Amino acid sequence: MYLNREEEKTLQGEYGESKRLAMKILCALGDFFHAEKLIRIESAHVSGVSYKTGGDALIDVLEKFAESRPKTAVVTSLNPSGMDRLRWREMGITDSFATKQNKIIELYQSMGVLSVCSCVPYELGNIAKSGHHVSFSESSAVTFMNSFLGAYTNRESGLSALASAIIGKTPEYGLHIPENRNPEVVVEIDAKLTSPTDYGVVGYSIGKNFGSKIPLLQKISHLNIQQAKQLSAAMAASGSISLFHTDSCTRKEFEEKTLEKMVIDQKHLDELKDSLDPTSQPDIIMIGCPHTSIGTLRRISELLKSPVSNRTQLWIFTSRPIKMIAGSMGYVQNIERMGARVFCDTCPVVSPMPEFELALTDSAKAAHYLPTMSKIESAVKPLEDCIKIATGERI
Ligand code: F3S
């Protein structure tokens, strides 16, 4: 990969060990993928924050990075950590886990990474215009940024996103190149999608069927943010899709007729939903994968009119800034008065959850990961049904 004079100097260590390390990672990545050069990025988002998933090795790597006190060159946000930074005891987190988790967050902060601890940085100001390059490493956010906003990012690892954040550049390959963003398969959605959860279920099926191929979704051209969040998260989880197009796709350089096609009709959708239905009473209901928006917190506070049943718990996950706004409007108080809990800085998948048998969630992505990451069986229902089941109402 071609490096200009400044980049060469960085690689030689003239600007400190941390920048040398970051440049070395970007060069290795660029050489591997035959990138010709580095390109500037507008912002970055770094995953790899939870002590549950990173362990002591993550602390060692971050200490090495932070040694010569680098600062991120662009606005950089942080993914969820392994606990609520204030209410971790309520989540059953141990003292030693909390100490190490805080250490990880402090190391990121020392490098200028914004500790928003959220997987929806685009709802918190880390957003980009269509065609702008960014370096993101949370798979659901990668797909959202590429598909809903039209920004350009590869699916980075936590380490490569951090390296890009420190240098302010990324190797030009993959989804940073317009020709690589053409649809590769067509999916016709011939079914009625009535909730964001339905979009997640459809995304889950597409990811499972097409792995990492770029789909063109037909008959769903007007996505809203909540639908796009669930669709992006699910197809990036069951497959590794980092970009999808919809009917409004403006890319004309592909021959649609020659592409493999799949149809998701009502029968297919209903069967999928049936297969995800809970078979017994869940002992935990989890909302907030990806992190709950202010609009959804408002909706939950309206829906939750009676106390959470003593046969289950209702945990809602969001970011701290969104929780603060929701608190100022009284939504958090309304929700917690009914016995539910609103946690932030973390999520049901990356935190060491206490023992539960069956989790009900409105997210196909969470349902996908809970059995393996948290050893909890999972089921999926739309938000409204989740709240009804939480309060013991019949649905
Ligand atoms: Fe976010 Fe955790 Fe889901 S990081 S997308 S809430 S698995």
Characterise the protein shown here.
By secondary structure, this protein is α/β, with parallel strands linked by helices. It folds into three domains: 5-178, 2-Layer Sandwich (Aconitase, domain 3), CATH 3.30.499.10; 182-275, no CATH class; 284-390, Aconitase, domain 3. It has 14 helices and 14 strands. The chain has helices at 5-12, 17-32, 51-66, 95-110, 139-149, 158-167, 196-210, 225-238, 266-275, 294-303, 320-328, 331-337, 364-374, 383-390; strands spanning 38-40, 43-46, 75-78, 135-136, 169-171, 185-190, 215-218, 245-246, 260-265, 284-287, 314-318, 341-344, 358-361, 377-380. Strands 12-11-10-13-14 form a five-stranded parallel beta sheet, with helices on both faces. Strands 8-7-6-9 form a four-stranded parallel beta sheet. Helix 1 (5-12) packs across helix 2 (17-32), helix 3 (51-66) runs parallel beside helix 4 and helix 5 (139-149) crosses helix 8. The longest helix is centred in the N-terminal third of the chain and has 16 residues, at 17-32. The mean pLDDT is 95. FE3-S4 cluster binds at residues 79-80, 119, 140, 233, 289-291, 347, 349-350, 365-366, 369.
CATH homologous group name of the largest domain: Aconitase, domain 3
Work out the helicity level.
40-55%
> Strand arrangement, largest sheet?
12-11-10-13-14
Round the mean pLDDT to the nearest integer and report it: 95
Termini Cα gap: 58 Å
Report the structural category: alpha/beta
The first-level CATH class of the largest domain is given as Alpha Beta
Number of helices, counting only DSSP H or I runs of 4 residues or more? 14
Structural domain tally: 3
Number of strands: 14
* Unique bound compounds: FE3-S4 cluster
Strand content: 5-15%
Q: Using only CA atoms, what is the Rg?
A: 21 Å
SSE sequence, one letter per element? HHEEHEHEHHEEHEHEEHEHEHHEEHEH
